Structures are given as C-alpha cells and as structure tokens.
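Input record, target 12 of the design panel.
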C-alpha cells in the first residue's frame, strides 16, 4: 500500500509539473490554435522543417552522448570571466546610429531607425527551466541587468528553447516592452507569464509585421521547438529586420539548408547578418551548423558583415568554448568575407565599413 501511495503522489507531481510549472510555458489560445492548424508547416500535429530533418537517435547514440556529457571537455568553458564593455543605457538611447550590441549567446540589443530591439533575451544565470542547475553562464552577471536596460520597443524571439526564451527574463521585461514579435505558437508561453495578448504578434514563415516604420519578416530556419514534453507545438524562425537605412538578418538556431539562399534572394543583401555559429555536434548536424556552414549561410543570405552568435555565454555542446569563433574566423579569412568579432557589449555600427575585428579570446586562459 505504501508503494502505491508513493506512485500516486509521484504521478500527481509529474502531472502538475508538466501542466502547471510556469517555466515550461503555456498552451496556445483558440485563435492561435486555429492559425497553427491552418499553417502549411503544421503536419500530423506538429511543425516540420522545409526539408527532411531527422533527429532520431539510437539507444547507442543516447548512451554515448550521456557519457560524453558527463566526461565533458576541459576547455568547454573559460576559466575566467570574459571581457565586457561597460553598458551605458543613456548613450545607447541617445545615439542616432543603427547599432547592435552582443550580450553573449544569441541575446542582442539593437537599434534600427530609432526603434530599440531586444533579440532572444536570456539574462538568467542558467539556460534552464530551473533557477539552480543546467548550462551555467560564463560570467557571474550578464552585461547588464534587465532593470538597467532602457525601455524596449520590440522583443523578438526565434523559438522557445530555454537558451532563447527565458521565463525569468520575460517576467522581468514585460513591464518595459511595448511589443513582442514571435513565431507562431509561442504566444501561449508569454500569456502564461502574464504578457498582455494585445502586445504579442505571432507570425508564420513568410508573414510580415510592421512596427514604427520597421518591417519584421518571419523566415524559415531548420531546427525544432519544445519545452517539457511538448515538441513541435510552436514554430522556429529566423528573422528579417528592415529599417529605413538598415537591413538585418537574424538566423536564430538552424542547421544548414536551402532556406538561406531563398531568404537572400527574397530579402538580401543584408547590411548585417547575425548567424548561429556554436553549440554543434555531429549528432545534431541537421539542426545546428558548424562554423564553416555558418559562413556559407552568411554568403547565401548575401550578408555584408557577419557577427557569429550562439557562443560566448553557455556551454551546450562538447566542443571547446573558442572553437566556434576560431573556425569561423579561419573560414572567413579563407573566403575573404567580413567578420565582426565584438567583445560582449562592444558596439557595432550597422552599415559601417569599420567594425571590431580583434581576436580578443586569444588572450583568455582556456
């Protein structure tokens, strides 16, 4: 009888966590569900990529991955805090320049045509559904705390994974953000976290939204989505951001595929391309790019300057923490393409021929 009671309690706890634990997110509204089921990308109850993208792992692969993760990489994360510029919210707000600051990983603060944007904001210590474990941020604190940021016009989300959509960050941001623009199906998470539905715009691939003179286009990526046990219930996107003078591409997370050339043909060239360049593994080759593919993707979208992102804050893969930027720089140098390598918080002027190019990571103890 005792074991039956324990089993029942365990089942109830799991049921509560899966359905009610806030960081796991929420369910789509009736209107969102209607749009999801009408989407050409939603087939057999879940979203799919444009081309076949297998993510099936054998038991041997799973056991091997677990062993490799436990074993780890001695150079998987830096042994000292990474260098950062001093964040000046007033200078950022007062500047008339189109610009971007990298906060590490895929979090970026941007200004285009005077509109202040925050991309994939993750300010928590862990990229995880819990506040005490998981992939840990390299630095003790991020470049700036959320309360130090200026008011934000638009928060742009690429997909709902924990290293891109963070519960605590959204909860703290919601009072100082005017508009959230997200892939189809992601709004349910935000409304669960008390974001007003009137402040959220959900877009399917190739749909557009306008805000204060900017145009945002949800464009394809080759990835997947899911928090908790729900997989494929929301879409994953890359984004085109078109301003009066600047045209920017944000890849989100993506494996390499023909969508990059398609996006470049439709919306390029781009003054700046923010391209995923980290957290790769041979087992994830369909859903994450190695750096050489990232540089090729940048060329496919017709970028003028590339900033490698998705590295420099969390370790989610088994490669060394500098491998992404070292390989991206080598590929860019070989092909003669423009690669910006800003330190965290270092300003990059969009459209300028002058941008940071130092190999700052070389002086850091690995």
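The sequence produced for target 12 reads:
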């Amino acid at each position: 009888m005792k074991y039956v009671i324990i089993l029942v309690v365990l089942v109830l706890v799991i049921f509560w966590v899966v359905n009610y634990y806030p960081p796991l997110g929420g369910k789509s509204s009736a209107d969102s569900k209607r749009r999801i089921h009408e989407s050409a990308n939603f087939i057999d109850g879940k979203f799919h990529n444009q081309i076949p993208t297998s993510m099936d792992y054998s038991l041997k692969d799973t056991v091997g991955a677990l062993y490799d993760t436990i074993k780890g990489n001695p150079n998987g994360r830096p042994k000292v805090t990474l260098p950062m510029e001093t964040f000046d919210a007033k200078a950022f707000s007062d500047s008339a320049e189109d610009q971007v600051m990298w906060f590490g990983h895929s979090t970026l603060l941007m200004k285009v045509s005077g509109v202040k944007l925050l991309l994939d904001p993750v300010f928590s210590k862990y990229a995880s559904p819990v506040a005490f474990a998981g992939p840990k941020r390299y630095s003790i604190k991020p470049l700036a705390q959320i309360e130090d940021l200026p008011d934000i016009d638009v928060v742009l989300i690429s997909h709902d994974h924990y290293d891109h959509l963070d519960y605590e960050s959204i909860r703290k941001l919601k009072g100082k953000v005017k508009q959230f623009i997200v892939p189809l199906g992601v709004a349910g998470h935000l409304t669960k976290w008390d974001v007003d539905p009137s402040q959220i715009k959900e877009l399917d691939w190739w749909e557009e939204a306008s805000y204060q003179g900017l145009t945002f286009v949800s464009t394809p990526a080759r990835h997947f989505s899911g928090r908790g046990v729900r997989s494929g219930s929301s879409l994953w996107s890359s984004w085109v951001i078109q301003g009066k003078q600047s045209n920017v591409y944000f890849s989100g997370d993506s494996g390499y595929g023909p969508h990059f050339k398609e996006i470049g043909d439709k919306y390029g060239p781009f003054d700046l391309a923010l391209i995923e360049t980290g957290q790769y593994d041979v087992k994830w080759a369909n859903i994450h790019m190695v750096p050489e593919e990232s540089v090729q993707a940048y060329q496919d979208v017709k970028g003028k300057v590339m900033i490698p992102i998705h590295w420099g804050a969390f370790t989610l893969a088994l490669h060394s923490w500098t491998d992404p930027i070292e390989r991206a720089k080598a590929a860019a140098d070989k092909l003669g393409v423009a690669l910006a390598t800003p330190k965290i918080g270092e300003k990059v002027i969009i459209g300028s021929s002058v941008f940071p190019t130092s190999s700052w990571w070389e002086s850091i103890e690995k």
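The first helix runs from residue 2 to 20.
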